[in-house]
Design goal:
alpha+beta; Formiminotransferase-cyclodeaminase, Chain B, domain 1; Formiminotransferase_C_sf (chains A, B); EC 2.1.2.5 (chains A, B); 4-stranded antiparallel β-sheet; 9 helices; FTCD (chains A, B); homodimer; histidine metabolism (chains A, B); 298 residues; 7-stranded mixed β-sheet; Alpha-Beta Plaits
Chain lengths: 298, 298
């Protein structure tokens, strides 16, 4: 497959189809870049895009896409249910094949520098690209949102990594990251009590003393009348899918609640599932190079 | 990935490196074909090659390879520990991506016709390409081997599908197939008693009343001093890896023997392992299109 990175830009428009299309079109047309998916949410007034490509082509395409975003989106009139700090809100770069995390950190810096200087946007780097530990977590970076940044940006702790020290009124600010691939994995419980899902979520997640790379919350699936432990596995190499799954099962036992199923949302790296097959099948000395499709695409 | 088939030709030379290389070289140099693996066994005096490619390119390359095989190998002086019926012994075609089994049957027929006519070799089609049910099993087709075919070929039941009705003294005969991908999967037992592995193998395999697409036998791993149930899963879509694994575990219980591990030998289609992860993680409504690498390579 050569050298491949993934980028999942989120921008603050999810209602005006013509505007959304004009932005997505930049990635669709870019040479060396493949648009894998995009979905808009009208309540959130936000669109999430997934694209892959070689590092050089994808960086260039994201900068071209940013230009379009700053042309058509005006944050001074933006409303939506999802937290956001700018027109182009977050841009995480993820190493997929033949690229290291260090290179993705470099890419986040390159793109941040250009967006800061060319479009006059304050840039914050987060996750693996963060310039300080208090900036690693996106929720901390974005706290206060677009409206709050007009004062937050003046705090010593929140000087931007690139770009001006004043919020761009039309474009807002931007958060750019290098991070591991994320697996959205939900476990369905044989109960309608969301408080049980919530209690389990609190024990399996990092915040509650659980697994290092698990974020989790309890949600109710109204249509099926069951509760669900909804998780983000933010490093499936170190906190494997099967480990999160087995831990939910184990905790569910205390309530006499069975696990009735699970869901993988969106795209998932092959290794995340293959590693779980290895665990359950007790496979010794397996190498990902034994996967036929991997060998074919090399 | 486009349209991809796999071919695993086996030829009757495993000692003379120069000869082996001259044959393999044909596939290595072929446009639109990728040589994934080859290994020679001196005791067997035989080489097994794995190559993939688009159907047109791979067919052409296999015919060119056959020409080289018939030039350098002489069956009238061949000796080796593995059953064989010809210089180019078996040529199975396997659908991998965007190609149906029916198309592979057609390819097996096309290649068989050319090899029969151009090189004057009796051709037998087996597995999904078989022209009669008694020819489906390779062991039945190959029974008697090169030496036995001089009389076997005269039997009404064993008239070749293509080519002459007399054995080619130098090149022998050939068996060509279309078949499902095969998964070589072994389960290691916490005992040194090979008779327990043997007894388990007999219950899980099709022959003994077990799973439809499992071939199995017990073997001893001398270096680790443990017994192993060695299996070929000849249709992993219908007889899943996890099902064979769980059945071995279940049967091992009757002897109080634990399963201590397993091995996947050689290449394995991604889906074979992903389907097992789906089972153990109880994933609902999963689609292989959710695999990131699959989407990238499309």
């Amino acid at each position: 497959m050569g050298r491949i990175i993934e980028c999942i830009p989120n921008f603050s428009e999810g209602r005006d189809k013509a505007k959304v299309e004009s932005i997505v079109e930049v990635l669709r047309k870019a040479e060396g870049v493949k648009l894998l998916d995009y979905s808009s949410d009208a309540d959130h007034n936000r669109t999430v895009v997934t694209a892959v490509g070689n590092p050089e082509a994808l960086q260039a395409a994201i900068i071209n896409m940013a230009e379009k975003v700053y042309e058509v989106i005006d944050m001074s009139t933006h409303e939506g249910g999802h937290p956001r700090m700018g027109a182009l809100d977050v841009v995480p770069f993820v190493p997929i094949e033949g690229v290291t995390m260090e290179e993705c950190v470099e890419i986040a810096n390159n793109v941040g520098k250009v967006i800061g200087e060319r479009f006059n946007i304050p840039v914050y780097l987060y996750e693996k690209a963060a310039s300080a530990s208090h900036r690693e977590n996106l929720a901390s970076v974005r706290k206060g949102q677009y409206e709050g940044f007009f004062t937050k940006i003046k705090e010593a702790n929140w000087k931007p990594d690139y770009g001006p020290s004043e919020v761009n009124v039309k474009g807002g600010c931007i958060a750019i990251a290098a991070r591991e691939p994320l697996v959205a994995f939900n476990v369905n419980l044989g109960t309608d009590k969301v408080e049980i899902a919530d209690a389990i979520a609190k024990t399996v997640r990092h915040l509650g003393g659980g697994l290092r790379f698990v974020k989790a919350m309890g949600v109710k699936l109204e249509d099926r009348n069951i509760a669900q432990v909804s998780m983000n596995l933010v490093n499936y190499e170190k906190t494997a899918v099967y480990r999160a799954f087995e831990m939910v099962k184990m905790e569910a036992k205390r309530y006499g609640v069975p696990v009735v199923g699970s869901e993988v949302i969106g795209l998932v790296p092959m290794a995340a599932l293959v590693r779980s097959a290895e665990y359950y099948l007790q496979i010794e000395n397996f190498s990902m190079d034994q996967i036929l499709e991997k060998r074919i695409s090399e």
